[in-house]
Amino acid sequence: MEIREKLLSVAKKATDMLVSHGSEGACARASYTETEEFNVDGGEFSLLRTVISQSIELDVIKGKRYATVSLNKIDDDSVEAAVRECLLSAEAADEDGHRRIAPDMGSRIFENGCTECDKDLFFDRINELCADIKERHPLIIVEQMIGRHRKRLSAYVNSSGSQFVCDRGSYELDLMYSAHKGEEATSFFSDGFITDTLDTRFIEMCEVDKNLSDVENQLGATPFDGKFTGVAVLTPPALGGFIYDLYSRFLSGSSVMSKSTPWLNSTGERVVDERITLSALPDGRAITPSPYSMDGYLNENCAFIENGILKTLAVSDYVARKCGYERAKSSFSSISLSNGDTPLADIISKIDKGIVVGRFSGGETSANGDFAGVAKNSFLIENGKITAPLTETMISGNLSQIFNSVINISSETVFDGSTSMPYMAVGNVTVSGK
Questions:
Q1: Residue 209: phi, psi to the nearest 5?
Q2: For residue 284, what pLDDT is reported?
Q3: 364 vs 80: CA distance, rounded Å
Q4: Which of 13, 97, 278, 339 counts the most CB atoms within 10 A of its CB?
């Protein structure tokens, strides 16, 4: 039996079994993943392996009680055992009338990316990248490089009548490297991207070449002396991290459930700078988008924030029903933050004193958005110019304040196959040196 048909059959069987035992609603998600992986350690190929995994996840509502069970086997005996376990778990759960199975969304087949791996060409591209790094960036030492091709097949079936089949595939590259000169070394930098094509040299993709240069330019870094509150230019990786923190603390279902988000009653109001539009684009540029949510709704293009105005909190159907909100039309994935119209070089030229933040490593952001941590792979800006690389430097601020203190947003964007981020200059960031 073809894998796709097998997954659909397993999901239908599990859902039917749950329904036959008197549940008010049920769904099953069956999946198969095949990963081809190349590892490079210290510049040499060290591992080639194929990893196959399969799993099923069941949800059931019975007597206003909800339970979920997952396992990594999809043979008949295992699925039947999982159904029994799921039903028993539901009987032991507390009543909660806010759970429901998504209505019938029809039968759909989704195909994205490249499901078949060209192993020879993928190997050649990775080998080519190793050679390009040695030639263009001789001071770089690649600690580890992992190239993967993932083939993901999945099927979703619910008791309302929905049937989704999804075939997705992509190439992934993860890099960790640093620069070395004599006894001097920089901090590590993590890089990577997702793609569905091998037509382009990897060093030319997703600012890999620029990031390698930036890390080389970190050699000779000096500690910052003093303290000031001013401008931070967030690179796309750093900005993406802050956006995720913004989601976790201000937009997510967990922050709504706990009533910890300051935006609890702010829908329709301006919450950040009017130049910020933050969207999920599942049918846009993402290589392997999530076509449907975990609760069985089709994901749609959705602006969480549009021109600074909060359009919707990122809540699931369950959180929306329990807390009295509208369900978000998409899960928080395949995220895009709109770019501006000013080149990065022009933005930097107008900054008297600031810092370029290549990476940010910090503790947990507080419920009100306060953050503090270390700016890594960063540079000092003085009189409109990048003047010196900095050793790890403390920065702090508040998410709400910095996203309401936007100086400018670059016209350039960086797309890593999943998210699209520009460079963003923000104010109200405190930089603390020795």
A1: -60, -45
A2: 66
A3: 41
A4: 278
Give start-end residues of each CATH 3.30.2290.10 domain in the chain: 3-216
DSSP 389-427: EE-SEEEEEEHHHHHTSEEEEEEEEEE-SS-EEEEEEEE
- The predicted-structure confidence for 226-247, as pLDDT tens digits, reads as follows 899 999 999 999 999 999 999 9
Residue 89 in tokens? 């778990």
What is the full DSSP assignment across 246-298?
A: HIIIIIBHHHHHTT--TTTT-TTSB-S-TT--EEE-TTTT-SS---B-TTSPB
Estimate the crossing angle of helix 119-136 against helix 208-216, to 10 degrees. 30
Q: What is the pLDDT of residues 87-144, one digit of tens each?
A: 999 999 999 989 999 999 999 999 989 999 999 999 999 999 999 999 999 999 999 9
Instruction: Report the amino acid identity of residue 406.
Output: V
Closest CA to 278 of 313, 324, 231: 313
User: Dihedral (C-alpha) 237, 252, 249, 275: value to the nearest 10 degrees?
Assistant: 60
Using alpha carbons only, what angle is made at residue 97 by residues 91 and 102, rounded to the nearest 5 degrees?
95
- The structure's pTM equals 0.93
The DSSP element (H or E) to which 232 belongs, if any, is: strand 227-234
Q: What is the pLDDT of residue 248?
A: 95
Domain 3-216 belongs in CATH node 2.60.40.1180: no
All residues at 6 or more sequence positions from 124 whose CB lies less than 8 Å from its CB, including other chains? none
The 8-class DSSP code of residue 175 comes to E
Give the C-alpha separation, 74 to 33, whole Å: 13
